[in-house]
Model the fold of this input.
Amino acid sequence: MQYEIKVNGKTQKVEAEPGTPLLWVLRDELDMTGTKFGCGVASCGACTVHLDGTPSRACQTFIEDAVDYDITTIEGAETKVAKAVQEAWREEDVVQCGYCQSGQIMSAIGLLTENPSPSEEDINSYMNGNACRCATYVRIKSAIKRASDKLEA
Amino acid sequence: MTATTLSRRHFLQASGAGAAALVIGLNAKGALAASTSASDINPFVRIEADGTVTAILKHFEMGQGTTTGLTTLIAEELDADWNKVAIEFAPADNSKYANLLFGMQGTGGSTAIANSYMQYRQAGAAARQLLIEAAAKMWKVPAADIRIENSILMNGNNKAHFGEFAAMAAKMPVPEKPAIKEPKDFRLIGKADLPRKDSHGKTDGTATFAIDVKVPGMVYAAIKRSPRFGGVVTSFDASDAKDVGGFLDAKTLPNNAGVVVFAKNTWAAFQARDALTVEWDFSKAESRSSDQISADMKTVIESPEFNTRKGITNAQSEEKLGMAAKVVEQSFDFPFLAHAPMEPVNCVIEPTENGVTVHDGCQFPALTQPVVAQVLGLKPEQVTINTVYAGGSFGRRANPTSDYHLEAAMAFALLGKSKAVKLVWSREDDIHGGYYRPVARHQAKIGVDKDGKILNWSHKIAAKSIMKGTSFEAFAVHDGVDHSSVEGIADSLYGLPEFAVGLSDVQTPVPTLWWRSVGHTHTAYAIESLMDMVASETGQDPIDLRLSLLDKSDTKQRRFAGVMEAARDKSGWKKGNKRGFAAHYSFNTYVAVVADISVQDDTVHVDEVHVAVDCGVAINPDVIRAQMEGGVGYALGAILHSEITLSDGEVDQTNFPDYPTLRINEMPKVNVHIVTSNEAPTGVGEPAVPPTGPAVANAIFAVTGKRITDLPMIKSGLSFS
Done:
C-alpha cells in the first residue's frame, strides 16, 4: 500500500505493507538509518523518534498510524533543545559504540523539552527505557545536566 | 560525508595514481616505507596534497575508543592538528595490518593500543621526519631548524602545511628507526580532554554501522535456526511465509543449520521467517535443561581432568586441611551469558567485479575473509572487507567460526551470487543464538591457621572450553588445558601456598565464546569473594590480607598492590567499614574496586564505585575513564540480572524484557583514578569487568551478611534498584 508520512517537515510517499513498523519504513525505504533497531519490542529505546514532539518507539508505531503525526528523527533534530543536547553529548564524550545514542538523544530532547531542569530522579525515570550496553549512563546523566545548564543560561 | 563513511573503493579512487599524497606503511619486507599512492602500499597514515591527514586504523571501533587511541599515536608524532585528522578503517590485509600480539588482523583481548603503540607512533614519526626533510630541501634550511605546530611546518618566515611537501617526501627513503618523541614532549598522549574522534557522527545519526548499509538490488535475509543447539533441518514448509508481503524465497542452508528467508526488506524477512514451519533432527542436539547441566557439572567438578598448576594436585593441597584452625569452603555457580550488543549482528555481502565485498563491523578480518572465501570458492584476497562502526561487540563479533559471515555467505551463494544480501539477526536471534559466556562452577577449600594465615588453597573449576574444537585450539590449549577456563586464578598474582587448581571440561553442544574479559568473568568473582571470606572469617582487613600475599619486589605484584593502595586511599577506605573491595589483574592491566551500596528492605542499590587502574602510559585518560565506567556497568548488569537458561535444550529467554541488562537508574557513580605509570600501555576495554562483581558481592556481604555465590544476584532473594 502507499502511505504519505511527514518526516522532518517533509511529506514523503512510501510503499509498505499495512502493519509495517515505522522503524523499517524509515530505515529500509527512506534510507534514514539514524533511527536504530535494537529489540523490536519497545524495550530498548534505540528506535526512539518524536511523534508530534513526543518520544515514541518507532518499532511499535505502525505505518498506518504514523500518517497521523509529524515525525521527527535524529536527522531532523534541530530545535534549540536538540542542539543543546547534541552539543552536551559531544562535550561530555558520551558515546562509545554509539548505536543506542540516537535513541538516547531523542529521549533526552523529549525530557528537556518537557522539563528543562530535571532532577536525578527525573532523569532516571524518563531515560529508563533507553538501554545502553556500553553503559554510558554516567555521561548521559552529565550531558543531560549540561544541556539543561546551557538552556537555562 | 566523513572520511569514515567512505568505502574502500572510493578511498582507492580518491588516493589513486596522480594524487600527490604521502602514505606511510609497511612494504613487502615488513619495513616502514613511503609512497605517493595507497595502491601500492597499505598505509597507517596518508597525507593528501591539501594537507589532510588520515589515520588508517587496523583495529575496528566497537566503542572501546581505538579510533581515538590509534589516531592519537599518529597525530602525536606528526604534531598534527587533532581536530583536522580524519580516520578510516583499514582493509583486510594480514601482511600489513596484523595485530602484532596475534600474528593476524583482528581486535580483542584488550590489545589494540598495546600492540599498536610503537607501530603507529613510528609511522607518524616517519611521516614527520620525511616532511621536515622535504621542507628543509625546499627552503634550503637545516632540518633541525624546522618545527611543526598543528600540522604547519615552520622556519622563520617560511610556513606551509603538510600537503606542500607530501609529494616530495613520498620519494624519500624512510629512516629505519624514525626518532619518536620523549614522553616529556607529549602533547596529545595523556591529554585529559582530547575529544573522541567518533563523537560527532554518533550524535547526529550519520555514523554508518553495518545494519545501515544499503547497496543497489540488495535482498534482505533472516534465518530460522534450530531451537536446540546442534539440531539440523529435515524439512520445512514455507506456505504461510509466502503470504507475507515482500517474501521472495526460502531455502535450507547447505549445512542444514537453518532455513534462510529472502525478502524485500528487513521486516518482511523477519515476518516470513517467523511464519516458517521447520522440522528438525535433534539427535545430536543439547536437550538437557539448565538444572540437569548444573547437576552434571557438580559431578564432573569433583574429579578434575586437568591439574592446571603443575606439581600439586587438589588432593595434595587438601592434605593441609587437617592442620587448619579454620576451613573456608565455598562453591560458586555462573550462568551462560549473551553478549547482547545493541546492534544485533548482521552484515552485507555484495558482488564485485573480482569477488565480493563484506560490509561489516568486522572484528576479525583474518577469520572472516577465509571463511567467506571458502564458501564462495574465492581466494581470500577476492573478499574485500569494508569495516564500518560496530554497535558493540563485547566479544560477540570475534568468532573463530565467523558464524554470521558464514551464514551470510551461504545465503549469498543460495541466491546465485549475483545479488547483494544483507543478513540481519533479530534480538530474539541474538538471545537464542548461543556463543555465550560458558556456564562455570567453582569449588574451593581453603585452610587457615589460628593466626589467619592461609595454609592451602584447593580450587576446582568446571567450565565449557571456549577454544577446544576451534581454529584457536592450537594457540590457546596446552596439555589439554584451555587457559581461558582458568585464567585469573591458575595464574593469580597472589602468593598462595599449596595452591592447586583442577579443571574439568563441561561437555555441551551449546556454543560458547569469549565475553568481555573471558574467563576472568568468573574466576575473579570466585577468587575475590573467597579472599573476602578468608578476611572476614579471620578478622582481617580484606585489603591488608591481599597486600600480605603480594611481594613488592616483583614488578607485577608491586603494580597490583599499587592499585589496591590507590583504591583504598582514594575511596577513603577504613578498616571495618561496610564496603566491598576486590582487585584483579587481567589483560596486563591492574584494577582495584571499592563498591559502596545502600540497602533498604532487601533492595540493594549500588551507589558509588571507586576504580583504580594501572594500564601503563595513559594515552587517552578520558577513554580510559569511559572504559572503566562502561566496564563497571557491563559487569553490574550481568551480575545483578542476566542469565541464559535452557528448558529441554531450548533457551528460555527471548529479548530484553526477560534478559534484562543494566538501566540508567541502576548505574552507580564511578570515580576513576588512573595510576601514573611509564610502563608500556596495556588494554582497558575488559579489565574493569572482573573486579566489579566481587566488589559488589563483598559490599552486600559487609552490609547484609549475605554471601551471594549463585549468579545472577537476583536469584538471592534480594532486589536491585
Summary: Residues 80-152 of chain A form a domain with the DNA polymerase; domain 1 fold (CATH 1.10.150.120). Chain A touches chain B through 56 residues (CB under 8 Å). The beta strands of chain A are 2-7, 10-15, 48-51, 54-57, 70-72. Residues 22 and 65 of chain A are 9 Å apart (CA to CA).
